[in-house]
Design a protein that fits this description.
single chain, about 75% helix, mainly alpha, 11 helices, globular
Amino acid sequence: MTWQFTLTGLALGLIVGLTGVGGGSLMTPILIILFGFKPTYAVGTDIFHGAIFKTFGAFRHRRLGTVHGHLTMWLFAGSGPMAVAGVAVSYVLRNQISNAETILGYVIGAALIGGGSGFLAKSFVKRGIQPSEAPFIMSRRDKMFALGTGAVFGFIVGLTSVGSGTYFGLMMVLVYPLTMPRIVGTDIFHAAALLWIAGVGHLIINDVDLHATAWLLTGSVPGILISSRYTIKVPDLTIRGGLGGILVVSGLKLLNVPQANWVLGIGLGTLFVILAIYTARVMLSEPRATPERA
């Protein structure tokens, strides 16, 4: 199985490049639900692939000057060590508990529901602090909040691979007076550093399928490099609603709710219809440009 991984990587690379939002959270449920990976190997493979994949975006944003260095450092001071702790818990579960895969599957399902809700929250939650182009000098409170945020969500990322961008980006939107380009740049740069720490940890405990990772990268890297040159005029709610809805429905599937397959099929079908209608109405209601007369 090789070309299937390449196509999957290409699709996710195109999503990230065109929309700027994280298709990476989709990798773990895809590996589990579509490719039949055990949750432990899906998490490790997703994280290690994401580390390499997001490094390209991290360097790009660093060159553009959209990374807040001090905020990244304080987030990573909390997330790095706790991501290692998350990897350690995953290792203990796998080696000392007989039904570890089932337990981790449930944990991933809950994390996916939380991550999907975070995507939706980014669209509906109004900012409490207005963004500013002025230099942002972090106070002691800002540093402590970044440290705590990194610790909590770093552990979740190390254990489940979910939320390396979603949770941190949402917190930055709510708390820090950064413009969206700086939030996106800081989020991606921090995510790349965090995923390298967690990815190497999973590689050490042998939770990474290197064959799948290599073939995923043959699709995802060209996908993001090609599609990042273009933009698509799709409503933000459509993008976030689509990804968020897919994550929530996938989470319900992994939680083995009653009639999980029906929930997955009907949920995705309903989501597609609703978002298609919404997108069509928004795009058709936009005023058309009239040609200028000579």
